[in-house]
Protein backbone atom coordinates (compact mmCIF):
# COMPACT_ATOMS: atom_id res chain seq x y z
CA UNK A 1 0.00 0.00 0.00
CA UNK A 2 1.03 3.63 -0.30
CA UNK A 3 3.14 5.06 2.50
CA UNK A 4 1.11 5.88 5.63
CA UNK A 5 3.29 8.92 6.25
CA UNK A 6 1.82 10.74 3.26
CA UNK A 7 -0.29 13.52 4.76
CA UNK A 8 -2.07 14.42 1.52
CA UNK A 9 -5.73 13.73 2.38
CA UNK A 10 -6.73 12.38 -1.02
CA UNK A 11 -3.73 10.07 -1.31
CA UNK A 12 -4.21 8.81 2.23
CA UNK A 13 -7.94 8.08 1.92
CA UNK A 14 -7.60 6.47 -1.52
CA UNK A 15 -4.68 4.38 -0.24
CA UNK A 16 -6.73 3.18 2.75
CA UNK A 17 -9.66 2.31 0.50
CA UNK A 18 -7.45 0.24 -1.81
CA UNK A 19 -5.92 -1.42 1.23
CA UNK A 20 -9.32 -2.53 2.56
CA UNK A 21 -10.29 -3.97 -0.82
CA UNK A 22 -6.94 -5.77 -1.10
CA UNK A 23 -7.17 -7.29 2.40
CA UNK A 24 -10.84 -8.25 2.54
CA UNK A 25 -11.76 -8.55 -1.14
CA UNK A 26 -14.02 -6.24 -3.15
CA UNK A 27 -17.05 -8.55 -2.97
CA UNK A 28 -16.80 -8.89 0.83
CA UNK A 29 -16.38 -5.14 1.36
CA UNK A 30 -19.33 -4.27 -0.88
CA UNK A 31 -21.51 -6.86 0.87
CA UNK A 32 -20.77 -5.41 4.32
CA UNK A 33 -21.11 -1.86 3.02
CA UNK A 34 -24.55 -2.65 1.59
CA UNK A 35 -25.68 -4.07 4.95
CA UNK A 36 -25.22 -0.62 6.44
CA UNK A 37 -28.00 0.75 4.25
CA UNK A 38 -30.54 -1.29 6.18
CA UNK A 39 -29.71 0.79 9.29
CA UNK A 40 -30.42 4.13 7.64
CA UNK A 41 -33.84 5.54 8.65
CA UNK A 42 -36.42 6.65 6.12
CA UNK A 43 -36.22 10.25 5.04
CA UNK A 44 -33.13 12.31 5.69
CA UNK A 45 -30.13 10.03 6.43
CA UNK A 46 -28.84 10.25 9.97
CA UNK A 47 -25.19 9.22 10.11
CA UNK A 48 -25.41 8.34 13.81
CA UNK A 49 -27.50 5.29 12.98
CA UNK A 50 -24.50 3.66 11.34
CA UNK A 51 -22.74 3.50 14.70
CA UNK A 52 -25.09 0.83 16.02
CA UNK A 53 -24.93 -1.68 13.19
CA UNK A 54 -24.06 -4.80 15.22
CA UNK A 55 -24.14 -7.30 12.36
CA UNK A 56 -21.78 -5.40 10.07
CA UNK A 57 -18.07 -6.16 9.93
CA UNK A 58 -15.88 -3.26 11.04
CA UNK A 59 -14.27 -3.21 7.59
CA UNK A 60 -17.65 -2.24 6.10
CA UNK A 61 -17.96 0.64 8.56
CA UNK A 62 -14.44 1.77 7.74
CA UNK A 63 -15.24 1.70 4.03
CA UNK A 64 -18.36 3.78 4.68
CA UNK A 65 -16.27 6.25 6.70
CA UNK A 66 -13.80 6.67 3.84
CA UNK A 67 -16.66 7.17 1.38
CA UNK A 68 -18.06 9.91 3.64
CA UNK A 69 -14.69 11.68 3.68
CA UNK A 70 -14.56 11.48 -0.12
CA UNK A 71 -18.09 12.91 -0.35
CA UNK A 72 -16.84 15.85 1.73
CA UNK A 73 -14.13 16.46 -0.87
CA UNK A 74 -11.52 14.71 1.25
CA UNK A 75 -12.17 16.83 4.31
CA UNK A 76 -11.26 15.36 7.68
CA UNK A 77 -13.91 17.47 9.37
CA UNK A 78 -15.38 14.32 10.97
CA UNK A 79 -18.56 15.24 12.76
CA UNK A 80 -18.91 12.56 15.42
CA UNK A 81 -16.33 11.64 18.04
CA UNK A 82 -16.85 7.94 17.27
CA UNK A 83 -15.86 8.60 13.65
CA UNK A 84 -12.61 10.16 14.85
CA UNK A 85 -11.91 7.07 16.96
CA UNK A 86 -12.71 4.73 14.07
CA UNK A 87 -10.39 6.62 11.73
CA UNK A 88 -7.62 6.29 14.33
CA UNK A 89 -8.16 2.55 14.63
CA UNK A 90 -8.22 2.14 10.86
CA UNK A 91 -4.88 3.96 10.53
CA UNK A 92 -3.28 1.89 13.31
CA UNK A 93 -4.60 -1.38 11.89
CA UNK A 94 -3.58 -0.56 8.31
CA UNK A 95 -0.11 0.50 9.38
CA UNK A 96 0.38 -2.61 11.53
CA UNK A 97 -1.06 -5.16 9.12
CA UNK A 98 0.84 -3.69 6.16
CA UNK A 99 4.10 -4.12 8.08
CA UNK A 100 3.22 -7.73 8.99
CA UNK A 101 2.28 -8.59 5.40
CA UNK A 102 5.50 -7.09 4.02
CA UNK A 103 7.54 -9.06 6.57
CA UNK A 104 5.62 -12.23 5.56
CA UNK A 105 4.37 -12.66 9.14
CA UNK A 106 0.76 -12.77 7.92
CA UNK A 107 0.77 -13.99 4.30
CA UNK A 108 -2.66 -13.48 2.73
CA UNK A 109 -2.31 -16.76 0.86
CA UNK A 110 -3.07 -18.68 4.07
CA UNK A 111 -6.76 -19.53 4.40
CA UNK A 112 -6.55 -19.35 8.22
CA UNK A 113 -5.52 -15.70 8.01
CA UNK A 114 -8.16 -14.74 5.44
CA UNK A 115 -10.80 -16.55 7.49
CA UNK A 116 -9.83 -14.73 10.71
CA UNK A 117 -9.87 -11.37 8.93
CA UNK A 118 -13.38 -11.91 7.55
CA UNK A 119 -14.83 -13.46 10.71
CA UNK A 120 -16.64 -10.51 12.36
CA UNK A 121 -16.19 -11.80 15.91
CA UNK A 122 -12.59 -12.99 15.50
CA UNK A 123 -11.53 -9.80 13.72
CA UNK A 124 -12.16 -7.60 16.76
CA UNK A 125 -9.41 -9.36 18.74
CA UNK A 126 -7.19 -9.88 15.69
CA UNK A 127 -7.23 -6.13 15.05
CA UNK A 128 -5.65 -5.46 18.45
CA UNK A 129 -3.22 -8.38 18.14
CA UNK A 130 -2.05 -6.97 14.81
CA UNK A 131 -1.20 -3.61 16.39
CA UNK A 132 0.82 -5.29 19.18
CA UNK A 133 2.60 -7.76 16.86
CA UNK A 134 3.60 -5.00 14.45
CA UNK A 135 5.35 -3.20 17.31
CA UNK A 136 7.51 -6.28 17.93
CA UNK A 137 8.11 -6.74 14.20
CA UNK A 138 9.19 -3.12 13.77
CA UNK A 139 11.76 -3.72 16.52
CA UNK A 140 13.37 -6.62 14.61
CA UNK A 141 11.56 -9.45 16.39
CA UNK A 142 10.56 -12.55 14.44
CA UNK A 143 6.79 -12.76 15.07
CA UNK A 144 4.24 -15.57 14.84
CA UNK A 145 0.47 -15.87 15.55
CA UNK A 146 0.19 -19.37 17.11
CA UNK A 147 -3.54 -19.10 17.89
CA UNK A 148 -4.40 -18.68 14.21
CA UNK A 149 -3.07 -22.20 13.69
CA UNK A 150 -4.67 -24.03 16.60
CA UNK A 151 -2.47 -23.14 19.58
CA UNK A 152 -3.51 -21.18 22.71
CA UNK A 153 -1.21 -18.15 22.66
CA UNK A 154 -1.94 -15.03 20.60
CA UNK A 155 1.59 -13.87 19.71
CA UNK A 156 5.11 -15.31 19.89
CA UNK A 157 8.03 -12.91 19.38
CA UNK A 158 11.69 -13.90 19.24
CA UNK A 159 14.93 -11.97 18.83
CA UNK A 160 18.23 -13.68 19.68
CA UNK A 161 17.87 -15.27 23.10
CA UNK A 162 14.71 -13.31 23.93
CA UNK A 163 11.50 -15.31 23.62
CA UNK A 164 8.23 -13.57 24.49
CA UNK A 165 4.75 -15.07 24.67
CA UNK A 166 1.94 -12.53 24.50
CA UNK A 167 -1.77 -12.67 25.30
CA UNK A 168 -3.94 -9.74 24.13
CA UNK A 169 -7.24 -8.84 25.77
CA UNK A 170 -9.70 -6.05 25.01
CA UNK A 171 -12.25 -4.63 27.44
CA UNK A 172 -15.25 -3.49 25.42
CA UNK A 173 -17.78 -0.87 26.44
CA UNK A 174 -21.40 -1.92 26.89
CA UNK A 175 -23.12 -1.18 23.58
CA UNK A 176 -26.32 0.00 25.29
CA UNK A 177 -24.43 3.15 26.30
CA UNK A 178 -23.83 3.75 22.61
CA UNK A 179 -27.49 3.03 21.79
CA UNK A 180 -28.66 5.59 24.37
CA UNK A 181 -26.21 8.23 23.12
CA UNK A 182 -27.21 7.63 19.49
CA UNK A 183 -30.93 7.85 20.31
CA UNK A 184 -30.45 11.14 22.15
CA UNK A 185 -27.92 12.50 19.67
CA UNK A 186 -30.27 11.88 16.75
CA UNK A 187 -33.02 13.81 18.52
CA UNK A 188 -30.66 16.71 19.34
CA UNK A 189 -29.60 16.93 15.70
CA UNK A 190 -33.18 16.85 14.52
CA UNK A 191 -34.22 19.60 16.96
CA UNK A 192 -30.98 21.57 16.46
CA UNK A 193 -30.36 21.72 20.22
CA UNK A 194 -26.80 22.63 21.30
CA UNK A 195 -26.17 21.29 24.77
CA UNK A 196 -23.85 19.46 27.15
CA UNK A 197 -25.89 16.62 28.66
CA UNK A 198 -24.73 14.82 31.80
CA UNK A 199 -26.62 11.58 32.53
CA UNK A 200 -26.02 9.26 35.49
CA UNK A 201 -27.44 5.74 35.35
CA UNK A 202 -27.68 3.51 38.45
CA UNK A 203 -26.40 0.40 36.64
CA UNK A 204 -25.28 -0.92 33.28
CA UNK A 205 -28.22 -0.20 30.94
CA UNK A 206 -30.43 -2.85 29.35
CA UNK A 207 -32.48 -2.77 26.16
CA UNK A 208 -35.54 -1.25 27.84
CA UNK A 209 -33.42 1.59 29.27
CA UNK A 210 -32.68 3.10 25.85
CA UNK A 211 -36.15 4.58 25.35
CA UNK A 212 -36.62 5.28 29.05
CA UNK A 213 -33.51 7.46 29.30
CA UNK A 214 -34.13 9.11 25.93
CA UNK A 215 -37.68 10.10 26.93
CA UNK A 216 -36.45 11.51 30.24
CA UNK A 217 -33.81 13.65 28.48
CA UNK A 218 -36.42 15.04 26.08
CA UNK A 219 -38.65 15.93 29.02
CA UNK A 220 -35.77 17.62 30.85
CA UNK A 221 -34.77 19.75 27.85
CA UNK A 222 -38.35 20.69 27.01
CA UNK A 223 -38.97 21.81 30.62
CA UNK A 224 -35.55 23.42 30.92
CA UNK A 225 -34.88 21.91 34.37
CA UNK A 226 -32.52 19.21 35.63
CA UNK A 227 -34.35 16.12 36.80
CA UNK A 228 -33.97 12.91 38.80
CA UNK A 229 -36.37 10.08 38.02
CA UNK A 230 -35.78 7.03 40.17
CA UNK A 231 -32.02 6.55 40.16
CA UNK A 232 -31.48 8.28 36.80
CA UNK A 233 -30.13 11.83 36.97
CA UNK A 234 -30.08 14.27 34.06
CA UNK A 235 -28.50 17.71 34.10
CA UNK A 236 -27.51 19.96 31.23
CA UNK A 237 -25.70 23.11 30.18
CA UNK A 238 -26.93 25.04 27.17
CA UNK A 239 -24.21 25.79 24.63
CA UNK A 240 -24.02 28.61 22.09
CA UNK A 241 -24.23 27.88 18.38
CA UNK A 242 -20.54 28.68 18.06
CA UNK A 243 -17.74 27.90 20.51
CA UNK A 244 -14.35 29.54 20.40
CA UNK A 245 -11.34 29.29 22.70
CA UNK A 246 -12.49 31.58 25.53
CA UNK A 247 -15.43 29.24 26.22
CA UNK A 248 -14.27 26.52 28.60
CA UNK A 249 -16.15 23.36 29.58
CA UNK A 250 -15.06 21.11 32.41
CA UNK A 251 -16.30 17.56 32.93
CA UNK A 252 -16.40 16.69 36.63
CA UNK A 253 -15.69 13.25 38.13
CA UNK A 254 -14.33 11.80 34.87
CA UNK A 255 -13.51 8.50 36.55
CA UNK A 256 -17.17 7.40 36.39
CA UNK A 257 -17.76 8.44 32.76
CA UNK A 258 -18.74 5.36 30.73
CA UNK A 259 -19.21 6.91 27.29
CA UNK A 260 -19.03 10.30 25.61
CA UNK A 261 -20.49 11.14 22.24
CA UNK A 262 -19.72 14.54 20.77
CA UNK A 263 -21.05 16.05 17.59
CA UNK A 264 -20.00 19.31 15.96
CA UNK A 265 -18.76 21.07 12.84
CA UNK A 266 -15.41 22.88 12.74
CA UNK A 267 -14.90 26.09 10.80
CA UNK A 268 -12.03 28.54 10.50
CA UNK A 269 -12.60 32.29 10.76
CA UNK A 270 -10.58 35.42 11.46
CA UNK A 271 -10.82 34.48 15.16
CA UNK A 272 -9.27 31.07 14.53
CA UNK A 273 -10.94 27.62 14.82
CA UNK A 274 -14.61 27.70 15.80
CA UNK A 275 -16.92 24.84 16.72
CA UNK A 276 -20.41 25.01 15.24
CA UNK A 277 -23.50 23.33 16.72
CA UNK A 278 -21.72 21.56 19.60
CA UNK A 279 -23.46 18.63 21.29
CA UNK A 280 -21.88 16.61 24.06
CA UNK A 281 -23.56 13.59 25.69
CA UNK A 282 -21.96 12.16 28.83
CA UNK A 283 -23.14 8.87 30.31
CA UNK A 284 -22.00 7.91 33.82
CA UNK A 285 -21.97 4.87 36.08
CA UNK A 286 -21.21 5.44 39.81
CA UNK A 287 -20.05 1.80 40.12
CA UNK A 288 -17.70 1.95 37.15
CA UNK A 289 -14.43 1.18 38.96
CA UNK A 290 -15.86 -1.93 40.64
CA UNK A 291 -17.29 -3.22 37.35
CA UNK A 292 -14.19 -2.48 35.25
CA UNK A 293 -11.77 -3.94 37.82
CA UNK A 294 -13.87 -7.12 37.97
CA UNK A 295 -13.80 -7.46 34.17
CA UNK A 296 -10.09 -6.64 34.14
CA UNK A 297 -9.40 -9.38 36.67
CA UNK A 298 -11.35 -11.91 34.57
CA UNK A 299 -9.32 -10.95 31.48
CA UNK A 300 -6.03 -11.23 33.36
CA UNK A 301 -6.96 -14.62 34.84
CA UNK A 302 -7.93 -15.95 31.41
CA UNK A 303 -4.68 -14.71 29.87
CA UNK A 304 -2.66 -16.23 32.71
CA UNK A 305 -4.35 -19.59 32.14
CA UNK A 306 -3.55 -19.45 28.40
CA UNK A 307 0.12 -18.69 29.11
CA UNK A 308 0.63 -21.54 31.59
CA UNK A 309 1.51 -24.00 28.83
CA UNK A 310 4.53 -22.04 27.52
CA UNK A 311 8.04 -21.37 28.85
CA UNK A 312 9.65 -18.00 28.36
CA UNK A 313 8.84 -14.38 29.08
CA UNK A 314 5.12 -13.83 29.45
CA UNK A 315 3.39 -10.52 28.81
CA UNK A 316 -0.31 -9.62 28.85
CA UNK A 317 -1.54 -6.68 26.78
CA UNK A 318 -4.81 -5.02 27.73
CA UNK A 319 -6.68 -2.55 25.51
CA UNK A 320 -8.91 -0.79 28.02
CA UNK A 321 -9.19 2.46 26.08
CA UNK A 322 -12.91 1.99 25.41
CA UNK A 323 -13.77 1.74 29.09
CA UNK A 324 -11.12 3.84 30.86
CA UNK A 325 -9.27 5.83 28.21
CA UNK A 326 -9.49 9.52 27.47
CA UNK A 327 -12.33 10.03 24.96
CA UNK A 328 -11.33 11.36 21.56
CA UNK A 329 -13.22 14.58 20.88
CA UNK A 330 -13.17 17.04 18.01
CA UNK A 331 -12.95 19.95 20.43
CA UNK A 332 -10.30 18.85 22.96
CA UNK A 333 -8.90 22.35 23.41
CA UNK A 334 -12.27 23.47 24.80
CA UNK A 335 -12.80 20.62 27.25
CA UNK A 336 -11.01 19.91 30.51
CA UNK A 337 -11.15 16.17 31.15
CA UNK A 338 -8.89 14.52 33.69
CA UNK A 339 -9.03 10.79 34.27
CA UNK A 340 -7.84 9.00 37.39
CA UNK A 341 -9.13 5.58 36.36
CA UNK A 342 -5.83 4.50 34.79
CA UNK A 343 -3.88 5.17 38.00
CA UNK A 344 -6.45 3.25 40.10
CA UNK A 345 -6.39 0.26 37.77
CA UNK A 346 -2.61 0.39 37.55
CA UNK A 347 -2.50 -0.19 41.32
CA UNK A 348 -5.05 -3.01 40.88
CA UNK A 349 -2.90 -4.70 38.20
CA UNK A 350 0.27 -4.29 40.27
CA UNK A 351 -1.43 -6.05 43.19
CA UNK A 352 -2.62 -8.85 40.87
CA UNK A 353 0.90 -9.33 39.51
CA UNK A 354 2.29 -9.80 43.02
CA UNK A 355 0.21 -12.99 43.20
CA UNK A 356 1.05 -14.16 39.65
CA UNK A 357 4.84 -14.25 39.62
CA UNK A 358 5.14 -16.17 36.34
CA UNK A 359 3.79 -13.14 34.40
CA UNK A 360 6.56 -10.66 33.60
CA UNK A 361 4.38 -7.63 32.94
CA UNK A 362 0.98 -6.29 31.97
CA UNK A 363 0.88 -3.56 29.33
CA UNK A 364 -2.12 -1.24 29.11
CA UNK A 365 -2.47 0.51 25.75
CA UNK A 366 -4.33 3.59 24.57
CA UNK A 367 -4.68 4.99 21.02
CA UNK A 368 -3.85 8.70 20.93
CA UNK A 369 -4.42 11.30 18.25
CA UNK A 370 -1.93 14.17 18.07
CA UNK A 371 -2.85 17.51 16.52
CA UNK A 372 -0.61 20.18 15.07
CA UNK A 373 -0.89 23.85 16.21
CA UNK A 374 -3.76 24.35 13.73
CA UNK A 375 -5.80 21.47 15.14
CA UNK A 376 -5.08 19.19 12.16
CA UNK A 377 -4.28 15.51 12.92
CA UNK A 378 -0.56 14.92 12.43
CA UNK A 379 0.12 11.57 14.14
CA UNK A 380 -1.61 8.53 15.61
CA UNK A 381 0.08 6.40 18.25
CA UNK A 382 -0.75 3.31 20.28
CA UNK A 383 0.79 4.34 23.58
CA UNK A 384 1.80 1.69 26.10
CA UNK A 385 2.04 1.73 29.88
CA UNK A 386 4.03 -1.20 31.25
CA UNK A 387 3.13 -2.45 34.73
CA UNK A 388 5.02 -5.02 36.75
CA UNK A 389 5.11 -5.88 40.42
CA UNK A 390 8.75 -4.85 40.74
CA UNK A 391 8.99 -1.68 38.64
CA UNK A 392 8.09 1.71 40.10
CA UNK A 393 4.81 3.12 38.73
CA UNK A 394 4.58 5.88 36.14
CA UNK A 395 4.37 6.41 32.40
CA UNK A 396 7.83 7.87 31.99
CA UNK A 397 11.00 8.85 33.75
CA UNK A 398 11.61 12.59 33.52
CA UNK A 399 15.08 13.95 34.09
CA UNK A 400 15.54 17.72 34.01
CA UNK A 401 18.99 18.98 33.13
CA UNK A 402 18.66 22.58 34.28
CA UNK A 403 21.52 25.09 34.53
CA UNK A 404 21.00 26.27 38.12
CA UNK A 405 22.62 29.64 38.87
CA UNK A 406 25.36 29.27 41.46
CA UNK A 407 24.41 30.50 44.91
CA UNK A 408 20.91 31.52 43.68
CA UNK A 409 18.51 32.27 46.52
CA UNK A 410 15.28 30.25 46.83
CA UNK A 411 13.29 33.41 46.05
CA UNK A 412 15.32 33.99 42.88
CA UNK A 413 14.69 30.38 41.80
CA UNK A 414 10.93 30.86 42.30
CA UNK A 415 11.04 34.02 40.17
CA UNK A 416 12.94 32.17 37.45
CA UNK A 417 10.33 29.41 37.61
CA UNK A 418 7.56 31.96 37.13
CA UNK A 419 9.35 33.35 34.08
CA UNK A 420 9.85 29.86 32.59
CA UNK A 421 6.15 29.05 33.12
CA UNK A 422 5.16 32.26 31.30
CA UNK A 423 7.24 31.15 28.32
CA UNK A 424 5.65 27.69 28.35
CA UNK A 425 8.68 25.79 29.69
CA UNK A 426 6.73 23.99 32.38
CA UNK A 427 9.24 21.24 33.13
CA UNK A 428 11.93 23.85 33.64
CA UNK A 429 9.63 25.84 35.91
CA UNK A 430 8.93 22.75 38.03
CA UNK A 431 12.66 22.13 38.26
CA UNK A 432 13.32 25.61 39.62
CA UNK A 433 10.45 25.40 42.14
CA UNK A 434 11.62 22.02 43.43
CA UNK A 435 15.19 23.23 43.75
CA UNK A 436 13.91 26.20 45.76
CA UNK A 437 12.07 23.82 48.12
CA UNK A 438 15.18 21.67 48.43
CA UNK A 439 17.07 24.73 49.71
CA UNK A 440 14.20 26.19 51.76
CA UNK A 441 11.57 23.53 52.65
CA UNK A 442 9.13 26.07 54.14
CA UNK A 443 8.82 28.27 51.02
CA UNK A 444 5.05 28.56 50.56
CA UNK A 445 5.34 30.37 47.20
CA UNK A 446 7.12 27.39 45.62
CA UNK A 447 4.51 24.88 46.83
CA UNK A 448 1.72 27.15 45.56
CA UNK A 449 3.33 27.58 42.14
CA UNK A 450 3.84 23.84 41.73
CA UNK A 451 0.18 23.30 42.62
CA UNK A 452 -0.89 25.89 40.06
CA UNK A 453 1.24 24.30 37.32
CA UNK A 454 -0.04 20.78 38.04
CA UNK A 455 -3.67 21.98 38.01
CA UNK A 456 -3.14 23.59 34.61
CA UNK A 457 -1.56 20.35 33.39
CA UNK A 458 -4.72 18.39 34.31
CA UNK A 459 -3.25 16.82 37.45
CA UNK A 460 -5.47 18.53 40.02
CA UNK A 461 -5.46 15.61 42.46
CA UNK A 462 -1.66 15.76 42.60
CA UNK A 463 -1.70 19.57 42.80
CA UNK A 464 -3.77 19.55 45.98
CA UNK A 465 -0.91 17.96 47.93
CA UNK A 466 1.33 20.95 47.20
CA UNK A 467 -1.41 23.51 47.79
CA UNK A 468 -2.29 21.92 51.14
CA UNK A 469 1.39 22.14 52.11
CA UNK A 470 1.46 25.85 51.23
CA UNK A 471 -1.61 26.38 53.43
CA UNK A 472 -0.04 24.43 56.29
CA UNK A 473 2.74 27.02 56.20
CA UNK A 474 0.28 29.93 55.94
CA UNK A 475 -3.46 29.11 56.34
CA UNK A 476 -4.45 32.57 55.04
CA UNK A 477 -2.16 32.55 51.99
CA UNK A 478 -4.58 33.93 49.36
CA UNK A 479 -2.95 32.58 46.13
CA UNK A 480 -2.96 29.03 47.55
CA UNK A 481 -6.61 29.34 48.64
CA UNK A 482 -7.59 30.47 45.12
CA UNK A 483 -5.56 27.74 43.40
CA UNK A 484 -6.93 25.13 45.79
CA UNK A 485 -10.46 26.21 44.86
CA UNK A 486 -9.63 25.94 41.14
CA UNK A 487 -8.12 22.46 41.62
CA UNK A 488 -11.14 21.24 43.61
CA UNK A 489 -13.53 22.62 40.97
CA UNK A 490 -11.56 20.75 38.31
CA UNK A 491 -12.19 17.53 40.23
CA UNK A 492 -15.91 18.30 40.47
CA UNK A 493 -15.74 19.05 44.23
CA UNK A 494 -17.66 22.30 43.93
CA UNK A 495 -18.77 22.61 47.56
CA UNK A 496 -15.19 22.28 48.82
CA UNK A 497 -14.02 24.67 46.10
CA UNK A 498 -16.53 27.28 47.24
CA UNK A 499 -15.33 26.90 50.82
CA UNK A 500 -11.77 27.59 49.70
CA UNK A 501 -12.83 30.69 47.76
CA UNK A 502 -14.82 31.91 50.78
CA UNK A 503 -11.77 31.45 53.02
CA UNK A 504 -9.85 33.66 50.63
CA UNK A 505 -12.52 36.39 50.87
CA UNK A 506 -12.55 36.15 54.66
CA UNK A 507 -8.76 36.49 54.77
CA UNK A 508 -8.84 39.91 53.05
Automatic annotation (TrEMBL):
SUPFAM superfamilies: TPR-like (SSF48452). It comes from the Archaea. InterPro entries: TPR-like_helical_dom_sf (IPR011990), TPR_rpt (IPR019734), Ycf3 (IPR050498). TPR repeats lie at residues 410-443, 444-477. Keywords: Repeat, TPR repeat. Gene3D superfamilies: Tetratricopeptide repeat domain. This is Tetratricopeptide repeat protein.
